[in-house]
Design goal:
heterodimer, A: 426 residues, alpha/beta, D-Maltodextrin-Binding Protein, domain 2, 2 domains, seven-stranded mixed sheet, five-stranded mixed sheet, 18 helices, 45% helix, globular, B: 292 residues, mainly alpha, MetI-like fold, 0% strand
């Protein structure tokens, strides 16, 4: 017993000495990045830990994307067991702020690591604020783009001299182009995940914002003529399906497979699928030349749905962060932003302007081609009912998706969607 | 024999205490909290204001809640009795086999049961996929067109029920097989000497003697299927969740996604009451049958 006591004392003493020598901050990190972008994030984390071998160590954990992630963050922060820093969808900030899950990021925090408003696109910066307070630092802008099969578009005379699609602006022109592609012997002019509410929401919201629609005005959903704009926006993809130019009720993965197998000449999906096509092409399994451009302008002016992966600091109740740790966390955030070029390999557009304006990024394809959408990005409505995995996304599955597949009348579906969401406003 | 009563009582208390404690902390206390929470406007985390019966008033007027109750009972109807009957039928067939053949067939039927629900979802969602699924061939052959089964509200719950039966039947087969084995073969021998046919043997010997197992399986199934969540949640992802919403899913949506803990708790109380009522009803009905 005595020896055991001695041993314990020695061990404790040793441990306290070693922690004094280290003086190394550990930063606990949570993210929801498990796909192709997860691999790239892992590489960034490793690089960070190597470069900061004697000052900061990030201990990273990857959790389930969507509602499970945001539930876990909320419950753990409430009892002071949350991480020191985490990835967060900027569209989900309203929920995090309303549940007191997020801590404010002050101007001093940003200044301490040399970040400022000038480094970010205006709409992106604005989306990181709720009621004038900043709760997140944007890391990327991700959106949807139009993927296209260069061989098929060329055969249909839809490519210009630079190999970029032409004549796709305007809803009628676009539909005519789809018809041309179909007449050329392709099964579908375009494939989208027509069985996936989230995909349809992203397309719908882009088209809706091209008409300057306001999905949520004050606390009114689709108020006044916004309903008509919504009907117009939803009618565009609904007509593609009705005329057999796009496949009906197609799962997310199947819609990609239709494009990669050449059965659809174009495809609308998130930029995060860029690695899928890059990798297939690199392995020589794609069988055609592909490209990606920003979503065409169907209505009045360019606008594309967008969201941001950002960094947020949880408001860990009863666990005050030391100034040293806070500095370390900000260091992590700033470093990631400044090294976001490799993150762009996952298809995303770096939020940090110096990287976005760098020669390296401008040489990066197809990102550079569609990076213009950083300036025309339309972020989700600011409400705790909106954003990733929110009631608005559910409503897209319940009303928008069936409308696009012809199961519901578009007008009626938009009215029901409005009434459902309005009923959830408290 | 002389016994020390005090010592016995003490021993009993000590032995029962761990269970009682765990039961109180992990079941009784949360249940009381749930009921209390249903009278507040609490978010997912933290306390709320006392709002009296407001949540209950809201619940009874809530169309989505009514849909979820109807769907839950519909799902119970689609699974409980079919699953029990199919389990019994397969068990009786397996019972007629001997030796390694029996073990092999039993293993094949039991195999799906050991799969996690996420794997079951992946398999069947892929098999029914509109563009690439293998099930679309028979569907197209019989109906003349491809059908997005899990995206058609009218087919959704029957399809999920079908998958659920495929998935969980193995366990019922096992229970029934144990029951069948406990029936003495001499009874069947005696019956066949008396010229009783197969159907007579089933109705007069097998069915009455297997009844306790049947009652058990029915009760387990009933409680299990009233709490249906996983499969419905997984298969509907991204689609029309509302028409096929079940009760636990609606609790999840309200409490976790929308952070309305109070209202979520209210629906949970409703489900709790329903399960108790149904179990008591069924137990009484089954016992009445058994005593006949």
């Amino acid at each position: 017993m005595k020896t055991l006591m001695k041993l314990a004392m020695v061990t404790t003493a040793l441990m306290s000495i070693s922690s004094m020598v280290q003086a190394k901050e550990t930063v606990v990190w949570w993210d929801f990045l498990s796909g192709g972008d997860g691999v790239r994030m892992k590489a960034l984390l490793d690089q960070f830990n190597q470069e900061h071998a004697d000052s900061i160590e990030i201990q990273a954990t990857t959790l389930e994307w969507g509602v499970p992630f945001y539930t876990k963050v909320q419950t753990s922060a409430a009892v002071g067991e949350g991480p020191d820093v985490m990835t967060y969808h900027i569209s989900r900030l309203p929920l995090g702020v309303s549940t007191n899950t997020l801590g404010e990021i002050t101007a001093d925090d940003l200044a301490s690591v040399g970040l400022s408003e000038a480094d970010y696109a205006a709409s992106n910066w604005q989306a990181a604020h709720i009621d004038g307070k900043q709760y997140a630092v944007p890391f990327d802008i991700h959106s949807i783009v139009l993927y296209y099969n260069k061989d098929k578009l060329k055969a249909a005379g839809l490519l210009d001299d630079n190999g970029l699609p032409k004549g796709l602006d305007g809803a009628d022109n676009f539909k005519a182009a789809l018809q041309k592609l179909k007449d050329g012997g392709t099964q579908y002019g375009i494939s989208t995940g027509t069985a996936d509410g989230a995909t349809q929401w992203r397309i719908f919201y882009s088209l809706f914002n091209q008409q300057d629609g306001k999905f949520l005005d004050g606390d009114k959903f689709l108020d006044g003529d916004n309903l008509d704009k919504a009907v117009k926006a939803a009618s565009v993809p609904a007509e593609w399906v009705k005329d057999g130019l796009a496949p009906a009720t197609t799962e997310y993965a199947a819609s990609i497979a239709l494009f990669t197998s050449g059965e659809a000449a174009m495809h609308i999906n998130g930029v995060w699928e860029v690695p899928t096509f890059t990798d297939l092409a690199a392995k020589g399994q794609l069988g055609f030349e592909w490209g990606a451009v920003a979503i065409p302008t169907f209505f009045d002016h360019p606008a594309t749905w967008a969201d941001s992966h950002s960094f947020a600091i949880p408001n860990n109740v009863g666990k005050e962060m030391t100034p040293e740790k806070r500095k370390a966390v900000m260091e992590v955030i700033a470093w990631m932003n400044k090294h976001s070029l490799s993150w762009a390999g996952a298809g995303h557009i770096p939020a940090y302007a110096p990287v976005r304006d760098s020669a390296e990024f401008k040489a990066m394809q197809p990102n550079a081609t569609y990076s213009v959408l950083a300036d025309t990005a339309a972020f989700d409505p600011v409400s705790k009912l909106a954003g990733v995995a929110s009631p608005v996304y559910d409503a897209a599955g319940n009303y928008l998706m069936p409308a696009i597949n012809g199961e519901l009348d578009v007008q009626q579906a938009m009215e029901e969607m409005r009434d459902d969401l309005q009923g959830q406003v408290e | 024999m002389i016994k020390n009563r005090t010592a016995e009582v003490t021993a009993a208390l000590i032995l029962v205490a761990p269970f009682a404690l765990i039961y109180a902390v992990l079941f009784i206390y949360p249940t009381i909290q749930m009921v209390l929470m249903s009278f507040t406007d609490a978010p997912l985390i933290g306390d709320g204001q006392w709002v009296g019966l407001k949540n209950y008033a809201k619940m009874f007027a809530d169309r989505k809640f009514q849909t979820s109750v109807i769907n839950t009972f519909y799902f119970v109807l689609l699974t409980v009795i079919p699953n029990t009957l199919i389990g019994l039928a397969i068990a009786m067939m397996v019972n007629r086999l001997n030796g390694w053949r029996q073990s092999l067939i039993l293993a094949l039927f039991f195999l799906p049961y050991i799969l996690p629900v996420s794997v079951v979802y992946r398999i069947w969602n892929w098999m029914f996929d509109l563009q690439f699924g293998v099930m679309q061939y028979p569907i197209e052959f019989f109906t003349g067109q491809r059908i997005p089964v899990f995206r058609t509200p009218a087919l959704f719950l029957p399809a999920v029920a079908f998958v659920t039966i495929w998935w969980t039947c193995g366990f019922n087969i096992l229970l029934f097989l144990a029951g069948l084995r406990s029936i003495s073969p001499e009874m069947y021998e005696a019956a066949s000497l008396d010229n009783a046919g197969r159907w007579k043997q089933f109705t007069r010997i097998t069915w009455p003697l297997i009844w306790p197992v049947t009652a058990l399986v029915l009760t387990i199934q009933l409680i299990l299927q009233l709490k249906i969540f996983d499969q419905v949640y997984l298969f509907v992802q991204g689609g029309r969740a509302d028409p096929s919403m079940v009760m636990v899913q609606y609790i999840y949506v309200n409490a976790f996604q929308k952070s309305q803990g109070g209202y979520g708790a209210t629906i949970a109380v409703a489900l709790f009451v329903l399960i108790i009522a149904m179990s008591v009803l069924q137990f009484t009905a089954l016992r009445a049958r058994g005593e006949k």
